[in-house]
Every structure is written in structure tokens, then in C-alpha cells.
Model the fold of this input.
Amino acid sequence: MNALNITVSDKLYIKNPDETELGRKILSKSIELLNDLGYEHFTFKKVGLAIESTEASVYRYFQNKHQLLAFLINWYWGWLEVKMANEFIVLNTPEDKLRKAIELLVYPMDQDERIPHINENQLQHIVVSEYPKIYLTKEVDQENQEGYFLGYKRICDTLSLLALQINPDFKHPHSLFATVIEAAQSQQFFVEHLPRLSDAKKGQKDIVSFLTHMTIKTIQ
Amino acid sequence: MNALNITVSDKLYIKNPDETELGRKILSKSIELLNDLGYEHFTFKKVGLAIESTEASVYRYFQNKHQLLAFLINWYWGWLEVKMANEFIVLNTPEDKLRKAIELLVYPMDQDERIPHINENQLQHIVVSEYPKIYLTKEVDQENQEGYFLGYKRICDTLSLLALQINPDFKHPHSLFATVIEAAQSQQFFVEHLPRLSDAKKGQKDIVSFLTHMTIKTIQ
DNA sequence: TTCTAAATGATAGTATTACTATTATATTTG
DNA sequence: CAAATATAATAGTAATACTATCATTTAGAA
Done:
């Protein structure tokens, strides 16, 4: 089991960056630069320069930086889904699975050496800092049809089914897990930057225990 | 009680737009254009044109569109705080107050005729669609010091105190209400654009009942 | 091996954005 | 009425977000 392929909708790129050396370099350097500069200051020109290629080459893989961000974030959800599936194998109750899922959402990721061009940890930081920007746009409806948000929706569905195993009468599973997933990101951001919006001290444990408490109580 | 003044930090403008005719026109038209175009397509040039003034004039009031958005969103939180305080007068239990607060977060606002240049309903839509963009930037720490997020933090504090009245041992009041406030916004957005991320059908009632349920259960 | 197609590099160019600066003309205030 | 202030009109700059063209390199098929 050496090969691992995270697949994202082919509407999320012009040319599949996983399939070429240059494409993988673009992904790798984009993750680094998005982390360092933030989405607003990130440009394709800077990527081209940093990989000693050109702006035009980057534009052959992605229409614009918005599409690139959407690609990366979908890749992240796809990868998290794989991780969850792996962890769930040895867990027997839906509650244990939910607890594990929340941990995976919050705890830092270790590098997967099968995919050396993606730094999962940096990618997680990008998700924390940039995630809502991919859907909070005027183009959301069209991009939704093109599958820009499938990764997120699938995770949300998976967790919803677990909640219904615990309480089949629970009325708000999708709303709850959309909320939990967003809170997992925003609480990480708040602890770091706006600590008055969180009770968690630095470190992920407090966030996990808040989210777990809220999830379990709400389902019941 | 005819005068009503929502005050925001003076770091959120160059020149106070509430104090001049032109300033109020800028606010009024910016709210309209932000709604129509979305933050990304919104520019000061378009505002200047639409009010038959100039781009340069708009720049005399706000450093850039980011500051303008932060101003508007802080104004919204300030105004919501006033609304909550008014409603709380006739409510006696903290639980009733929390229920009311959640309703105020979600139900559409009626126009306050004391402030004719601010369309509260449009402003609420801007908050739903653009809110996280004001803090998800590399400049967040500096802007936090300048009071860019005070409005949000104060609402969060107020609601936290109510939760502690219900259960003084509750460990996560700030995290909970940061989460509830964000979910109030994002669930409104999801119902409209990404319905698979919500169980609420169109209309705000389902969102309110989800958020209320989650809040009450989590506090206990 | 050679031919062909595809990928990349190098370069140029355009429209728009996000400002800054200057000067002239109103308008307000003391 | 003078002085200060606000606004309008205009110009200009650097960066961004692309698009286009053509030459060169590389890879794959015949």
C-alpha cells in the first residue's frame, strides 16, 4: 500500500498538478507561500519566481489563485477523510469515532512521506486561516455545481451519519457538524490571534474537549 | 430618545463618516454596493462614481476597503448590542435572554428610521457574507490592538456572562458563543447556497431552533 | 531513430486595482 | 470677510491579474 492518491474534482484545475514535476513543485511552493504571505498577498508571479519558472506556467495549471486555494482545501478534506476511515477501523462505537474525528480536525498533522510534495501541517494552517474565503464569494453557486465544496460536504455527511447512530431522532446533524468543523478551524485561529473569543489556552487539548462536549451534549 | 449613536473605534476610519453628508452617502452606497457586488468586486472607484463624487474623496474617509468593511461590521455589532440591551429589559431569566439573543442574530432586521443612511437589513447580509474576511488576514494582530474586533468580542462577553448565570461551572462560554455567533452567520449562508451543510429549510426558524438547542444543551 | 505533440520558458502587453499627489474650487466657521 | 477646511477634478504610479505569442525543450509514438 505504497500509492496513495487523493482525488479532487477536475473542475479544480486546468491541468492536473499531481501528474507532473512542475505541477507538484507549484503545489509545494504554493503551500509554503500561502502560509508565509496569506491569501491576499499571495500571487502567481511570486510562485513562478520562487520555483524558478514563470507566472504563465502557473496559469497553465490553475485559472487563478482562488481555484488553487479551492484545490488545496479539497485535497485537505479528501486526505482527512482517508485518515478518518483508517482510524475508524479499530473503533467500535459511533461516539468513539466522533471523538477521534474531532481530534483529527484539531491536532496537527504529521507528514505523510508517501506524498512528499504536500506538507500536511502547513496545509492545515492554510485551512485554518483561509477556509471560508473559498465559499464566501458571489461565485459560490456556480462553483458549488462544479464540485468546489464536495470534500467538505462529504466529511459533514459522514459525521452526520455517526450522530444519527447515537440518536436517530436528532434533528440537526448537518448543521451541527458544519458548525463543529468551522469551530474547529476558527477556535484554532482565535486561540492564536483573538484569545478573548476562546477559553482554550494554547494547545489543542482544550479545543478538543470543548468541541467534544458540545457535540455529545447536542446530539443527545 | 430620538438620537441614537453607534460608536466605533476611531481606528476604523480616517475621518468620521457619520459626521458629514458625504460620509453618510459613502456608508449608504457602500452597503448597497457591497451587497450587490461582494467584497472582492467592490472598489472605492465604484463608490465614488455611484455617489457622483470621486475615488479620492472616499479615500479621505477610509484607508481602504478592508477598513471600511471593518467599520461597517463593528457598527453592526454595536447596533446589535443596543438591540439586545433593549430586549433584555423585559426578560427575567438568563435563558430567555439567550434565546432572544439568538433570534436577534438570525432574524432579519427592520430599518431603524433614526438612522436612515444605514440599511440594517442589507448590513446584516454583508455580515453573513463577508464577516470572517475582516480577521482572516496577516494583519489581524495589529488590527486587533487597534480595536477592529471589539464589537464582536463584547457581544461574546455579554452572552458568556449569561451562560455563567445558568451554570457557573460551565468551562467554555467564550468558545461556545464565538461558535454560536459564527454558526448563526454561516448557517444563514449555507441554507441559501450550500444546503447540504444545514438541516434548516429556507426560513430562519430552523436555524434558531438548532442554535438554541445546541446552546442550552452545551451549557448544562 | 525520427517525427510529432505537448510542455515549458521567455517575453510582452492590457485592463484594473489600489492607491498618492496636486491644484482649483466650493463651503463652513470664527 | 478672512482663513481654514472639504471636496472636485485630474493625473500619475506600482502592482495585480491576467492573455497572447513564439521559441525551445522534452516525451512519446511510429
